[in-house]
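Single Protein Entry

Contents — chain, fold
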Amino acid sequence: MHTSSCESGNKPGQDRRADPRREIDVLMNRFLNGYPYLSRATDISRTGMRIQPISGAGAPSRFVGLQFQLPGSNEVITASGEIISGKPEDGPLGVRFTRMPAISKERINRYLANRCPD
């Protein structure tokens, strides 16, 4: 599922994101205590993403490592993030990027710019 939505998706009382998001559907690794757990990314913005854990919820942790590829790209993006909403056992997690190499940030910005006109 590759969609072209560039809406911010903000609904009163539901979403605090200021940056436009892009719906995506990619498998990714979510790292907890150094171990990768399969997850699915369902949207991304410049500041974070929403992910759905698929395997091994792992120990509850506020901070996670992230590793993924954007649709249509072979480039691997790595980032650290903080879970700001949701619980692994309950469904989707809202993750805010906390650390990211400059090259990963550039790749996300380029991906969003090519799909979300200002």
